Amino acid sequence: MLAIRGLHSHYGLSHIIQGIDLDARAGEVIGIFGRNGVGKTTLLKTIAGWVTASAGTVTLAERGLCGLSPDRVCHAGVGFVPEDRRIFPGLTVEENLSLGLLQVRGRSRQQEHRAIDAIYGRFPRLGERRHQLGTTLSGGEQQMLAMARVMVGEPRLVLIDEPSEGLAPMIVAEVFAIVRELRDRGAIVLLVEQNVHEALSVADRFHVVERGKIVFSGEAGVETDCTRLMQLIAV
Ligand SMILES: Nc1ncnc2c1ncn2[C@@H]1O[C@H](COP(=O)(O)OP(=O)(O)OP(=O)(O)O)[C@@H](O)[C@H]1O
């Protein structure tokens, strides 16, 4: 369902993504690992349309995404939870969540309300804080809000960048539970994560990136693959 072929992207003259090929099926979680600065975030941003691809294709459910604006990529079913979470200042929790509704066209008002209520059922703390400014939430709650905002749009592909960064272990467990839920709903999840052990508990497969290329790929449950992975990302 997701096919990435020969993807390249640049920041000015810096060639960051240097020919990435990647496939994923519905309901798969793919871990994207690698040392700092190898291009993991840039890969997600290129798929999301935040960075323009200089070559290659990204196809999701037969639709080409390269060259589309971030907005259109979003409408094509791609949810992005960036590392800084992008909780909009000046907007309440509910207003932040409502932005996720923009991803799906053609829903009635009633369906939109139901979608938001379902989120409050799943994340009661967001419900309790619905009228509070999103930026006044704790770091963990903001991560939940960023993920919930994406879930409201029922994306086919979810890009998640370093979700556990700076969070307490209990919240990290909650973050990974949400990744499992997304998978169980049939979404593809591309998960960039430094917390490799946790990520392997939820990932089906993984890729290791070095200097903008995939240098090793493996299956999360296979011991030899995981040993090699740890060697590659050891500092
Ligand atoms: N906006 C930008 N303009 C120019 N160079 C950038 C920009 N953003 C990132 N870079 C550079 O691109 C390279 C890849 O960065 P990227 O953030 O994609 O790496 P990463 O693997 O996600 O690393 P980290 O784990 O540290 O976030 C780095 O050398 C970084 O300094």
UniProtKB/TrEMBL annotation:
Q: Protein transport: is it a keyword of this entry? A: no
Q: GO MF annotations for this entry?
A: ATP binding; ATP hydrolysis activity; branched-chain amino acid transmembrane transporter activity
Superkingdom of this entry's organism?
Bacteria
Print the keywords alphabetically.
Amino-acid transport, ATP-binding, Nucleotide-binding, Transport
User: What InterPro entries does the database record attribute to this sequence?
Assistant: AAA+_ATPase (IPR003593), ABC_transporter-like_ATP-bd (IPR003439), ABC_transporter-like_CS (IPR017871), BCAA_Transport_ATP-bd_LivF (IPR052156), P-loop_NTPase (IPR027417)
User: For this chain's UniProt record, which GO biological process terms are given?
Assistant: L-amino acid transport
- Domain called ABC transporter: residue spans: 2-233
The record ties this protein, via PANTHER family, to:
HIGH-AFFINITY BRANCHED-CHAIN AMINO ACID TRANSPORT ATP-BINDING PROTEIN LIVF
Functional note: Involved in beta-(1-->2)glucan export. Transmembrane domains (TMD) form a pore in the inner membrane and the ATP-binding domain (NBD) is responsible for energy generation.
Q: Which family does it belong to?
A: Belongs to the ABC transporter superfamily.
| Listed name of the protein | ABC transporter ATP-binding protein
